[in-house]
Amino acid sequence: MHMLVQFVFHEEMGNMSRQRIGLIAVASIYEAGVDETEGWLDTAAAQLGRKGLEVLAIKPVLTDQSNVEPAVEQLRKEHVDLLVILNGTWTADSLQVNIIKEVRRPTLLWALPYPKTFSLASVQHLGSVLRELGVGFDYVYGSPDDGHVIDRICKTAEISQLASLWGHARIGRVGRRSTWRTMGPADITYDELDLELSPGPIAVHIDMDELFSLVGKVPDSKARELVDSMRKNNKVGVLEGNEKALNEVSKVYFAVKDLVVKYQLDAITIECYPKYPGIDSVASAWLAEEGIVCVCEGDLGHTMLWVILQRLSNKPVGLLEPVMLESDDTLILRHEGSGAPSLSESISEVTLKSVADDRGVIIFSAVKPSTVTLATVWGKGKSYKMSILKGDAIRLSKADIQNYGGGLVAKVKFGAPARHIVDRMIRLGVDHHLMLALGDLTGELTEFCRITGIQPMRPDLTECNESR
């Protein structure tokens, strides 16, 4: 008889629900440790539950094919983000292969540090079989109450949930010509049929007039109230432009929120280039602080990557482009200013300037000194690739920001010469839009690529050729 053990937590993290773990244990009746495996399963479930995950623990321990089908049916019905298979003892590979193929979810194998059980050998052998079959997996090694193992499982579940989101996320694309090519570089254009046939974000086309209509309905008093609130919360910085222009562009903040609700969007991108500079920059910055992703230039793929990075780091992300190789072996990156205030070292170093005859407002700011991750995704269908870079952002003054062209600016030093980095990016065909996140997310992004089948690349090292 099968029993489902649930540890349910109703809180939410960001815009996504708690990760759901499918936890099963396998063992052989001929091996030492089979009688202890259910206890190990219970301990593991309790430890994961205490971390805030929703754990769906299936019992009894699976020892042969006779009790597999009810467990598989339950796991598929519950739509788990990650399947965790605890190897209590050495176990037949066919038993686990069948479960993995039937459940069809990202899989993590768990090897236990108990020599009498041959659990580690079981996981290594199964890994060899799965590799030959072209089936993706990851593994952990440690006891059921090992905190490092529990944390690793939690992180893998989070990445697995994001990988699932990648395949069905709804990205609102606001533009004048929703069935035409977006103005600007071809990298921000995706073939609509390919989007429907391949894993990747789904475009929800929204006419620019609908955005303008919603903006026009926002009362001036509501816009001023928002600006005043942002000032009190240190989200504005120094205004060197027109106060009326700031009030007008702040209305986009409310319009974007309305569109996200109306179309059930995971994120939104606005075709501001080249006719509407600065129309969405302030809204994008403020919304990013709330975990809502609004990206400029109608760039679908990078909007989705922004979502992934923001949820992994739990911090706002910045869109940048490489513009200059400095003599001190650093790379200068900049873009029209839409950087969230928290990306900068101090709100006093953030400046807002009106542009386009006061129809838009852009933000002059610099990325604060910190370890950063730069990532970009390009291609389509089965040829999606992701460039992943780690570097250190160096402090810039207001004068530096102006000298480098304004907007959001970052000066980054890598472990390899910047010229080498740029040379590698160009030779590898890496796209020019680089999403910057605070912190080192290289490991998480590599794991994300493994799960989604995206090919990871490291221009600061050598090209990664991980199996899909």
Q: Which blocks of ≥5 consecutive residues have pLDDT under 50?
A: 6-15, 178-192, 463-468
Give the helix proportion (percent range): 25-40%
- Please tell me how large the radius of gyration is: 24 Å
Q: Strand order within the widest sheet?
A: 1-5-4-6-7-8
Tell me the strand percentage band. Answer: 25-35%
CATH class category label of the largest domain: Alpha Beta
The mean pLDDT is 89
Give the beta-strand count.
22
Counted by DSSP, the helix tally is 14
Terminal CA distance: 36 Å
- What is the name of the CATH architecture of the largest domain? Alpha-Beta Barrel
Class derived from helix and strand content: alpha/beta
| Biggest sheet statistics | 6 strands, mixed
How many domain modules?
2
The outline comes out as: elongated
| CATH fold node name of the largest domain | L-fucose Isomerase, Chain A, domain 3
Assembly state here? single chain
Summary of the model, kept short:
This protein has 468 residues and is of the alpha/beta class. The chain has 2 domains: 3-150, Rossmann fold (3-Layer(aba) Sandwich), CATH 3.40.50; 170-457, Alpha-Beta Barrel (L-fucose Isomerase, Chain A, domain 3), CATH 3.20.14.
